[in-house]
Write a structure and sequence with these properties.
With 1454 residues, the protein is mostly helical. It contains 71 helices and 17 strands. Strands 1, 2, 3, 4, 5, 6 and 7 form a 7-stranded mixed β-sheet that branches. It has a 3-stranded mixed β-sheet with strand order 12-11-13. Helix 25 packs parallel to helix 28 (588-598).
C-alpha cells in the first residue's frame, strides 16, 4: 500500500464488495472502517416499507459475512443523526478520510451535502464515487449545456459516450480499523429493520428471493445465458421468467449497473457478429431499460423537486380526485378490474410486480380513478421490494396506457389473473378480463358473484373516459389561459379578492373580513406552497408571491377568527419550512404581532405557537428590540404562561405542552425581560415541579428547557434553587446515559447556568453534590458523543470553587476519567504500572500527546485537574484513593505540555486557537499543582517539571526573563502578546519554585524585572486584555444572562498580575529562606525596597482581584506588614485610639493599659473577654492581664482586631505568633507564619454584623428608632418593644460619624439616652445600620426585580436613600453621602419617570445638589413630562430648573 491512511467507507445502497469504487479506493490507501448507518427519521415520508426493509436486512448480513472473510466487518449504527454518527466514527477511529458512493434521490442529496459540509469543516477529507450509474448526471448535457428533459436524446447521447470497461475486482483483503467506545455499534437485528409482526409475511419472501451481492452475480449470469435472448419476445408476458429479476439487486447496489451493462453489451456484440437479430433486439430492449433507470436518477438530480411536485407541466394543472375510498379499493385489489386487482394482490404478497403490471395499475389509478400520482408513488414506495424513488417518480408521472387492451395482450390466457385472484380461477378465458360482461349463467358456473366474492367495477369505463376527457380539457384551458401553474392561478385570484389600494399610500393592502374568502385564500396559499420545497425556495414564483402571501396571512391572523386562524397558522408553519428566513425578515414583525395576539386562543394556540416560535428563532439581532415591544404590548409571555397552566387541568396534550414550553423558552433565551414574568409566577413554578416528576421524557425535556432558560436570570436561578430538589433530581436523571441526547445536553446546560454564580453553585452542590459529580465523571469517562463530554467538562468547572463536591470528584476517580480524554485507551497504549520510572512515564506521555487524541477537549482536562489540585487538602494522597498512576500520568502530561509551551516561545502565538488554549490551560494547571496545598501533588509536579526541563532549564529561564524585561522597558502600553506573556509569567512562577532556578532568576535581576512589570501593569491595566485563550465560546444564550451578581474567579480578574506576583512571591520566599531574615535581604536590595513596598501596598489596597491582593499581602508579610487595610478598619482604629469610646480596659503587668471595646473583642478575639460576660453596664470594666502576656504583642494583636492590619517588627514576631495561636485568630496566624494563600480565598473582612446576632446583641448599648412608630409585621427577637427599632453600639456608630461621636461625648442629656431617634424610614434605617457595620450601603433590588417593581415601590426604595442623603448633611458623613448620591442617580438612570418625585422630595429637604442632578436625568424626557401635565404640580422654580437642563441637553446633541 502506498499509504497507511485511515478511511471510513460509508455503505448505503452499494451493498457489494466487487466493482465498488469507494471500497476499492479505501482499501488501496490503508486501513478501512466499513460502516452502515440507519437513520429512519431522516428518511421522512420515504421510510422504506416492509419488503424493502426485509431485503436490506438480508443484504447487510450477507455483506457483513463477505467483509469478515476479507479480515474486516461491517459496523452497524442506528442513530437519530447521520452526521453525528459519522463524526463519532471519525473521532473513535482517528480516520482522516470518509468515502462513499453517490446517491441521487432528493433525500440523499441533501443528507450527503450536510455530511460533507460538516466533515470538511473539521478537516476531514471526503470523496464520493460513482458506484450506481454509467455516467454521473453532471456529465450529460444537451448542446446548449442544459439538462435533457426527454429520454430519447438523453439515451442517444449516453450510447455515443464510452463506458469504462474495467470493473474493480473485490479486494484481496482489508486492513481493519478498530473503533474506540465512542461508536454506538449494534447488530443487524438491532437496526430494527424487521419486527416480530412482519416475520410471518416475510417468510414468503425468503422462499422467493436470495438477497446478497454474490447471489446477484449468479442471477445475472443465468439471465444472460438463458433468458436474455428471448427478452424482447417475452417482455409482453406477465407470467413465467420474462424479466431479469435484477431490479432489487440493482436498487440495493448488490450488483453494479456497469457490470450489467457491459455483460449485456458484450452479448449483443456476439449476437451481432452471429447475425442474431432477435438477440440484438432483446439486448437493445434490455439496455433501454437500464437507460430509463439512468434517466430517472438524471432527472432527480437535475430537478430535485420532482418527488414533491410534477415534472410534467400539464400534471400541475390536472384536477386530481383525492378520493380515499377509491384509493383504498385500488391498493387492496378490489377495483373490479381483474388484471389491476391481480397485480395489487401480487404486490402485497410478494413485494414485487412485473414492470408491465406496474404500468397498468399505475395508469389505472391515475387515468381511470384520477387519483393523485403522489399517492400511488408513495404506496409503491411502501410495498415494493425494489422500491426506487427515482424510478417511481418518473414512472408515476408518465402513465399512458389503458389496461383492458393490455390485459389481453400481456395475459392472453388469464394465467396471471387466476394465480392471484382465486375467486376467478374458473372463469372462462373469454370473460376473465371483463367479468362484468359475462352472462349470469357463466358467472354462476364459475362461482363468481359480482359485488359479493368479487368486486363490481369501481367505475364504468365510459364514465372514466368522459371524466378524464373533461379533466384534460380543463387542464389545457388553464394552461392556455394563464400559462402558469394551477396553484399559482388559484392563489392569484384568491389574493386579489382581498387587496385594497389606499389612495394616500403607494402599496396596496390586503383587507378582507369575509370568513369564507379568508378560508379560500389560506387553502390557496397552502396548495401553492405544496408545489415547492426548501430546495426550490428560490424559484421565481416564490419570490414574486411572498410579499402578497405575507400580507394576507398577517391580516387573517390579526383578524383572529376562530374558524380560520388555526388554518392560517399552519400555513405560516409550512411557509417557514420552505422559504429561507432572509426572505421573510421584512414581514417578521407583522407576523409576530398577528401570531402573538392569536396564541391567546386555546383552539389555535398550538399552530400559532409553533409558527411564532419558528419566526422568533430566526429574528435578527437588529430587530429584537422592536419584536420585544410587540411581544410586551401583546402580553404574549403572560398568555403563554396562562396557557401552560391549563395543562394541569388535563385539557391539552403533551405535544401542546411541549410546543408552548418551546415557545416560552425561545422568548426567554432571546429576551431577558421576559424571565421575571415566568419565575415570579408561583402557579407555573408549581406546575413545572409537578411535570418534572412525571416519567414522560417529552414532558420532562420541555420542563428542562424552561428551567434552563430561566436559569439565565440570576434571580430566577436563585428562586429555582430555593426549593430545587425536584428540579435537580430531574436534571440529573436526564443527564443519565439512558436519556435522549437532547435531554442530556439540556440537563448539562441547566446545571452550568445554575453554577454561574458561586452562591448558587454552592446551593446546588449542597442539594445534590454526589449524584451530580457522579454523572459528570461518568459522562467524561464514558460519554458516547463528544458533545456530551464537552458539556460535562464545562460543568466540571464547578471545581473552581471550594466545597464538598471535591471529595466526590476524587471518590469517582476523576483522574481516570480525565485521562480518557487524553489517551483513547490508557491501559492498552501504555505499559506503565505503579513501578514505572519517571523517565518511562515521560516517554509514554510524549507519544500520547503527539497522537493528539481529542484535541478540542485537552484544555478542559488541564483546567479541571488544575482546579482540583488547587483545592485539595494538605493530607491528600492519591495512593490511598487508588488513583496514583492516573494522577501521576496527568501531572506528567501537563508538565510536558507546559514545558513545550515555554520552549515554543514566540511561536506559540502562531498556532491555532486549540493549541494556544492548551498552552495556557496546561501552564495554569501546572502552576496550580505546584502551589497545591497537597504536599503529594505539589512535590510530584515540582519533581516532574524539574526532570523534564533538565539541562535546558536555565536557557529557558533566561529567555523568559529577557522577554519579560522587554515589556516595561519598551515604553508601550499594551502587551505584545497576551498568551506568550501569560506562559512566560507562569513559567517564571513554576521555575522559581525549584530552588536552583530561583537562585538563577535572582542572579539575573528577575525580582527587579517582575517588580517593574507589576508597576507597568498598574499604569496600563485598562489596556491589558483578558488572559484566557481557552476555546469555550459562550453560546448566544450565555451572552444574554441577566441579574447575576457573580463572585469573580480568583484568577480571572487581573490574572496576568497574579501570575507575576506568584513568581515574585517565590523569589522573595527563596531569598528569605536562604538568608533567614529580612534585614539581609533588604540590605542587599535596598534599591528596590521602597518600590516593592509601595507597589505591593497599592495592589493590596486597590480594586484588583482577590488573587493579586492576597499575594501582595503575602509578600508584604515578609517585610513586616500583615493584613489588609480598608475604610472600615481605619474607622474602627480611629475610634480605638479614643479612650472615651471604650467600655473595657486591659491592665498590663508593667502598669500600662489598653482601652478596648467589648463588642470588638467579642467579634474579633473572644478569648480576651472574661468568662460569663453580661450585658452592657454603662461602666468601664477593668481586666488585669497575666504577666506572661507580652505587652507589645498584645497591643499588636488588638491593632489587628480593630483594623485587620498590623505592622510587626521581627523581634515581636515570635511572641505575636504565640498569642495569635492562643487567641485563635486564624487569618493573622496564617500571615505571621507566611502561609501561602489558598486558591480562591476571599479577602478577609471585619465581620461586624456578628455583633447584631442573638449571641452578641447583649453588648448593644443604644437603640435606633425610625420615623415610623407602628409596623404591623415588626417583631424584635431581643426585646418586647413592638415599635420599629434597631439595636446598635455607640462605639461602632461613633467610628463612622463624627456628629454621633461628639454627641455621645458631649455630656448633654441626649448623650446618656439609650434610644436615638433617626429621622428616616424603617427601610432607610436598615440600610444605614448596614453601612455602619459593613461600610457598604445596600443597593436597591437589581435587574428584573427592579424593572418589574411598580412606580410606588421604586419610589419607596429611592426615598430611603434620599432620607439618608439628607441625614448625612446633618451628621456630617461625606462618604455615605457620596454613596447615596451614586445609588440615587443610578436609580434615576434606569427609571427616569422617578425624576419628578425625586426632585420634589429633595427640594423638601433643601438638597439642591440632588435636585439639580435629578433635573439632569429628567431633561431627556422633558417634553413628555410637560405634555403629560406632570410638571404642573411643581413650583415654577423647579420647572425652570428642569427646562434649563433640557435646553442644555438639547444643545449638547441629546
Amino acid at each position: 500500500m502506498a499509504t497507511n491512511r485511515k478511511t471510513i467507507v460509508w455503505f448505503r445502497r452499494d451493498l457489494r464488495i466487487d466493482d465498488n469504487p469507494a471500497l476499492a479506493a479505501a482499501a488501496r490507501e490503508g486501513s478501512v472502517f466499513p460502516v452502515f448507518i440507519w437513520c429512519p427519521e431522516e428518511e421522512g415520508q420515504f421510510h422504506p416499507g416492509r419488503a424493502s426493509r426485509w431485503w436490506m436486512k438480508q443484504s447487510l448480513a450477507h455483506l457483513n459475512q463477505s467483509l469478515k472473510s476479507l479480515g474486516s466487518h461491517l459496523t452497524f449504527i442506528k442513530t437519530h443523526s447521520t452526521v453525528s454518527a459519522i463524526l463519532d466514527c471519525v473521532r473513535s477511529t482517528g480516520a482522516t478520510k470518509v468515502v462513499f458512493n453517490h446517491l441521487y434521490d432528493p433525500v440523499s442529496l441533501v443528507r450527503d451535502h450536510n455530511v460533507k459540509e460538516k466533515l470538511v469543516e473539521r478537516g476531514i477529507s471526503v470523496q464520493g464515487y460513482n458506484g450506481d450509474l454509467l455516467y454521473e448526471p453532471w456529465e450529460i448535457n444537451s448542446e446548449n449545456g442544459k439538462p435533457f428533459t426527454s429520454f430519447a436524446p438523453y439515451w442517444k447521447k449516453c450510447l455515443d459516450m464510452s463506458v469504462e470497461s474495467v470493473m474493480l475486482p473485490p479486494p484481496w483483503g482489508l486492513m481493519p480499523l478498530t473503533a474506540a467506545e465512542g461508536v454506538w455499534a449494534c447488530s443487524v437485528e438491532e437496526l430494527g429493520l424487521e419486527n416480530e409482526a412482519e416475520k410471518p409475511s416475510n417468510a414468503l419472501l425468503t422462499r422467493a428471493w436470495s438477497p446478497g451481492w454474490s447471489n446477484a452475480d449468479k442471477i445475472l449470469t443465468e439471465f444472460i445465458e438463458k433468458q436474455l435472448i428471448d427478452y424482447a419476445k417475452n417482455s409482453k408476458k406477465v407470467v413465467g421468467n420474462s424479466t431479469s429479476m435484477l431490479s432489487p439487486y440493482l436498487h440495493f447496489g448488490e450488483i453494479s449497473v456497469r457490470r450489467v451493462f457491459q455483460c449485456v453489451r458484450m452479448k449483443k456484440i456476439i449476437w451481432a457478429r452471429d447475425k442474431n437479430s432477435e438477440g440484438e433486439e432483446s439486448a437493445d430492449l434490455f439496455l433501454r431499460g437500464i437507460g430509463q433507470r439512468e434517466y430517472s436518477r438524471y432527472i432527480c438530480f437535475n430537478f430535485p423537486f420532482t418527488h414533491e411536485q410534477s415534472l410534467l407541466s400539464h400534471l400541475r394543472f390536472f384536477p386530481w380526485d383525492a378520493d380515499v375510498g377509491k384509493f383504498k379499493a385500488w391498493s387492496q385489489g378490489r377495483t373490479g378490474y381483474p388484471l389491476v386487482d391481480a397485480g395489487m394482490r401480487e404486490l402485497w404478497a410478494t413485494g414485487w410486480m412485473h414492470n408491465r403490471i406496474r404500468v397498468i395499475v399505475s395508469s389505472f389509478a391515475v387515468k381511470f380513478l384520477l387519483l393523485p400520482w403522489k399517492w400511488g408513488m408513495k404506496y409503491f414506495w411502501d410495498t415494493l421490494l425494489d422500491a426506487d424513488l427515482e424510478c417511481d417518480i418518473i414512472g408515476w408521472q408518465t402513465c399512458l396506457f389503458w389496461f383492458q387492451i393490455q390485459g389481453a395482450k400481456y395475459d392472453p390466457e388469464g394465467e396471471y389473473i387466476r394465480q392471484w385472484l382465486p375467486e376467478l380461477a374458473r372463469m372462462p378465458t373469454e370473460w376473465i378480463h371483463h367479468p362484468w360482461d359475462a352472462p349470469s349463467t357463466v358467472l354462476k358456473a364459475s362461482g363468481v358473484e359480482l359485488g359479493a366474492n368479487y368486486a363490481k367495477p369501481i367505475v364504468d369505463i365510459d364514465t372514466a373516459r368522459e371524466l378524464l376527457t373533461k379533466a384534460i380539457s380543463r387542464t389545457r384551458e388553464a394552461q392556455i389561459m394563464i400559462g402558469a401553474a394551477p396553484d399559482e392561478i388559484r392563489l392569484y385570484h384568491a389574493l386579489n379578492l382581498g387587496f385594497r389600494r389606499v389612495s394616500d399610500e403607494k402599496e396596496k393592502k390586503w383587507e378582507c373580513t369575509d370568513i369564507e374568502i379568508q378560508r379560500h385564500v389560506v387553502r390557496s396559499i397552502s396548495a401553492f406552497l405544496d408545489c415547492f420545497s426548501r430546495a426550490t425556495a428560490n424559484h421565481r414564483l416564490i419570490k414574486d408571491s411572498i410579499s402578497d402571501i405575507a400580507r394576507a396571512l398577517v391580516f387573517i391572523l390579526g383578524y383572529r377568527n376562530r374558524a380560520v386562524v388555526g388554518l392560517a397558522a399552519n400555513v405560516v408553519i409550512k411557509l417557514l419550512r420552505i422559504v429561507p428566513p432572509s426572505l421573510l425578515q421584512s414581514y417578521s414583525l407583522d407576523l409576530v404581532e398577528s401570531l402573538s395576539s392569536s396564541v391567546q386562543q386555546m383552539e389555535a394556540s398550538l399552530p400559532c405557537g409553533v409558527a411564532l416560535n419558528a419566526i422568533l428563532v430566526n429574528v435578527r439581532e437588529t430587530k429584537e428590540k422592536e419584536v420585544w415591544k410587540v411581544l410586551e404590548e401583546g402580553r404574549t409571555v403572560v398568555s403563554v404562561v396562562a396557557n401552560l397552566q391549563s395543562f394541569s387541568e388535563g385539557n391539552v396534550s403533551v405535544e401542546w405542552f411541549q410546543e408552548m414550553a418551546s415557545l416560552l423558552s425561545t422568548v426567554m433565551l432571546k429576551w431577558p425581560q421576559s424571565r421575571y414574568l415566568v419565575w415570579n409566577d408561583p402557579d407555573l413554578m408549581g406546575l413545572l415541579e409537578s411535570v418534572s416528576q412525571k416519567p414522560d421524557m417529552d414532558l420532562r425535556f420541555a420542563a428542562l428547557k424552561l428551567y434552563s432558560s430561566l436559569a439565565l436570570c440570576g434571580h430566577g436561578a436563585s428562586e429555582l434553587l430555593d426549593n430545587g430538589k425536584p428540579m435537580l433530581d430531574m436534571m440529573i436523571s436526564c443527564m443519565d446515559e439512558s436519556s435522549p441526547p437532547n435531554a442530556r445536553i439540556e440537563g448539562f446546560k441547566l446545571a452550568q447556568r445554575l453554577a454561574t454564580g458561586n452562591r448558587e453553585c454552592l446551593k446546588m452542590i449542597n442539594i445534590c453534590s454526589e449524584p451530580l459529580v457522579k454523572v459528570i465523571v461518568w459522562t467524561i469517562r464514558s460519554g458516547k458523543l463528544e458533545n456530551d463530554r464537552i458539556e460535562a467538562c464545562k460543568l466540571a468547572f464547578i471545581t473552581r470553587w471550594e466545597g464538598k463536591h471535591h471529595i466526590y470528584f476524587w471518590k469517582y476517580r476523576i483522574s481516570e476519567a480525565l485521562l480518557s480524554l487524553v489517551v483513547e485507551n490508557f491501559c492498552s497504549e501504555s505499559s506503565l504500572d505503579g513501578h514505572a520510572s519517571l523517565e518511562e512515564e515521560i516517554s509514554v506521555a510524549e507519544k500520547i500527546l503527539n497522537a493528539n487524541f481529542l484535541p478540542s477537549l485537552r484544555s478542559y482536562v488541564w483546567d479541571i485537574i488544575g482546579f482540583l489540585a488547587a483545592h485539595s487538602e494538605e493530607e491528600f494522597d492519591s495512593t490511598s484513593r487508588g488513583e496514583e498512576l492516573n494522577l501521576n500520568f496527568l501531572v506528567t502530561c501537563a508538565c510536558l505540555t507546559f514545558s513545550r509551551s515555554v520552549q515554543k516561545g514566540y511561536q506559540i502565538c502562531q498556532t491555532d486557537t486549540i493549541s494556544a488554549s492548551q498552552s495556557e490551560s496546561a501552564s495554569r494547571a501546572v502552576l496550580m499543582m505546584i502551589y497545591s496545598p497537597s504536599k503529594y501533588i505539589s512535590s510530584r509536579a515540582r519533581d516532574t517539571l524539574s526532570f523534564i526541563i533538565g539541562e535546558d532549564g536555565e536557557q529557558n529561564l533566561y529567555s523568559l526573563v529577557n522577554f519579560l524585561s522587554y515589556i516595561p522597558s519598551s515604553g508601550g502600553y499594551v502587551l505584545p502578546n497576551i498568551l506568550q506573556t501569560t506562559v512566560c509569567l507562569v513559567g517564571l512562577a513554576c521555575y522559581s519554585s525549584i530552588p536552583q532556578y530561583a537562585s538563577f532568576t535572582l542572579r539575573n535581576q528577575g525580582l527587579e524585572i517582575l517588580l517593574s512589570f507589576c508597576s507597568w501593569y498598574q499604569r496600563n491595566r485598562e489596556n491589558v486584555g483578558a488572559s484566557s485563550f481557552a476555546p469555550y465560546p459562550q453560546s448566544s444564550a450565555e451572552k444574554r444572562i441577566c441579574c447575576w451578581e457573580c463572585t469573580e474567579d480568583w484568577d480571572n480578574k487581573d490574572a496576568i498580575l497574579l501570575y507575576a506576583l506568584l513568581a515574585l512571591a517565590e523569589l522573595v520566599n527563596h531569598s528569605f529562606s536562604e538568608q533567614n531574615h529580612a534585614e539581609e535581604f533588604l540590605n542587599k536590595r535596598e534599591s528596590v525596597k521602597d518600590r516593592l513596598c509601595t507597589t505591593l501596598q497599592e495592589i493590596r489596597d486597590g480594586t484588583y482581584g482577590s488573587g493579586p491582593r492576597w499575594y501582595a499581602a503575602y509578600i508584604l508579610s515578609y517585610l513586616g506588614y500583615y493584613g489588609f487595610q480598608d475604610k472600615l478598619g481605619k474607622r474602627l482604629m480611629g475610634a480605638y485610639e479614643d479612650e472615651e469610646c471604650s467600655d473595657m480596659r486591659l491592665l498590663f503587668a508593667n502598669g500600662n493599659g489598653a482601652s478596648v471595646n467589648k463588642v470588638i473583642l467579642a467579634v474579633r478575639c473572644p478569648t480576651l473577654l472574661p468568662p460569663k460576660e453580661g450585658a452592657h453596664s454603662g461602666t468601664v470594666q477593668e481586666i488585669r492581664m497575666s504577666a506572661n502576656v507580652d505587652t507589645l504583642a498584645l497591643v499588636k494583636l488588638l491593632e489587628f482586631a480593630y483594623s485587620g492590619y498590623v505592622e510587626v517588627e521581627s523581634s515581636t514576631l515570635k511572641k505575636l505568633k504565640t498569642l495569635a495561636r492562643h487567641c485563635k485568630t486564624k487569618i493573622l496566624l496564617q500571615m505571621l507564619c507566611r502561609g501561602r494563600p489558598k486558591w480562591g480565598s476571599s479577602i478577609p473582612r471585619i465581620d461586624l454584623p456578628l455583633a447584631l446576632t442573638l449571641k452578641l446583641i447583649h453588648f448593644s448599648d443604644v437603640i435606633l428608632a425610625p420615623k415610623e412608630t407602628n409596623m404591623a409585621s415588626f417583631n424584635c427577637r431581643l426585646c418586647s418593644s413592638t415599635s420599629p427599632h434597631a439595636h446598635s453600639h455607640r462605639f461602632i456608630l461613633s467610628s463612622g460619624c463624627e456628629y454621633l461621636r461628639a454627641l455621645f461625648r458631649s455630656g448633654m442629656q441626649e448623650s446618656h439616652l439609650d434610644r436615638l431617634n433617626v429621622p428616616v424610614s424603617w427601610l432607610g434605617l436598615t440600610k444605614l445600620v448596614n453601612w455602619f457595620y459593613c461600610d457598604e450601603l445596600p443597593k436597591p433590588p437589581s435587574g428584573c426585580r427592579w424593572t418589574n417593581m411598580d412606580t410606588d415601590a421604586k419610589l419607596q426604595e429611592l426615598q430611603a436613600y434620599v432620607e439618608i442623603y439628607s441625614l448625612t448633611e446633618w451628621w456630617i458623613m461625606e462618604d455615605l453621602q457620596n454613596d447615596c448620591a451614586k445609588v440615587i442617580l443610578s436609580c434615576l438612570e434606569s427609571a427616569r419617570e422617578l425624576s419628578i418625585k425625586t426632585i420634589e422630595l429633595a427640594a423638601s429637604f433643601s438638597m439642591w445638589k440632588l435636585v439639580e442632578a435629578a433635573a439632569e436625568h429628567a431633561a431627556p424626557i422633558y417634553h413628555q413630562l410637560r405634555d403629560s401635565g406632570e410638571l404642573d404640580e411643581l413650583d415654577d422654580e423647579l420647572v425652570n430648573l428642569i427646562r434649563t437642563a433640557a435646553v442644555q441637553f438639547s444643545q449638547q446633541g441629546g
